[in-house]
Amino acid sequence: MNDAAPHSTDLISQLLTGMRIQGVHYRRIQTGPTFGLGFPSKPGHAYFHYVAVGNALLRGADGSQHLLSAGDVVLVPRGDGHALLSGEDQSIQYLETLDAAPLGDAVSGIDTCPSTHAVPSAVLFHGCMAFDLGGMQGLSKLMPSVMLADGNAAQFPGLLPMIDAMKREVCSGRIGFAGILARLADAVAAMIVRDWVERGCEGASGLVMAMRDPRLSLSLLALHQDPGRDWTVEALAAESNISRSVFADRFQAVIGTAPLRYVTELRMQLASQWLTQQSLPIEVVAERLGYASQAAFSRAYKRVMGDSPGATRRGRGLAAL
Asked: pTM of the entire structure?
């Protein structure tokens, strides 16, 4: 984004700082010449695939197909159901039904290569990641169902050294390779998302247009830096150096929601992240976000998120079991 104003770049950096990608589990997969691996829909998560050796066909739940070859990296950012196949007519086995041998922390190995084959036809590295965009959560529905970086990483030049490192680790089996692969996968996934945002989200509208708007980006940056401030439309307009009425109309036209509704939704997205990922007490979250009482915060949270803050915390605890 070389043509972006400095405050627009600051805003994008601020939003990306709130992004969290954390691996839930990873699999190093070796297959024979035929295979069909299924991955169920998993909202709130992202799927990551790296093809180290061989080829695969990725088929989405909508029937879309993507041919993958050695060196390709795929991110499925919304956790949509899909399959990796050796051919269009191949039957599918869901990954969790296959035997896996532990290789390291949260990393396992799956080997479906027949004993009659000395060398596997395909070697893959797969990850399932908890994916939270924080203040950018509104962008998740704008993301493509599949984000592909090919083996040459032409559209993602910064990825090439990391993809090369992944291939070395996948194929070498050196001490500690499983943990290194997991960290590389997290970093590569984050870089793919960052590049998508920096390239204007492939023409997506709304928040992305606001980030590029020389006026709106000023107020958005101030809001994201201090979400707990007692924000009013007048205060936001003052940050943008325009009148209240012009600001409100411009905000609604570009982002598609009223300014104070955006403030509330941002606060609740941050609250969810703080409750689930940082395990902050509800009263601390309420205070950080400028609510005079825990009860007022809880009412706002349930109205936006559909559940209470306590239920969100309990859900996190159950998910960790």
From this structure: 0.69
Supply the CATH number for residue 302's domain. 1.10.10.60
Q: For 184-202, how does the pLDDT look when each residue is reduced to its tens digit (9 = 90+)? A: 888 888 888 877 776 666 5
Residue 279 backbone zone (phi > 0: left; psi -120 to 50: alpha; other: beta): left
- Tell me if 12 is assigned to some domain: no
DSSP code at position 67: E
The residue type found at 38 is G
Return the H-helix or E-strand segment holding 234: helix 233-240
128: its two tokens: 């399932």
Do you know the residue count of the chain?
A: 321
Q: Starting from the edge strand earliest in sequence, which strands make up the sheet with 101-104, in order?
A: 101-104, 107-111, 20-31, 122-132, 45-53, 73-76, 147-149
Query: Which residues constitute the domain of residue 177?
Result: 18-202
The side-by-side arrangement of strands in the sheet containing 55-60 is 65-69, 55-60, 82-85, 36-39, 93-94
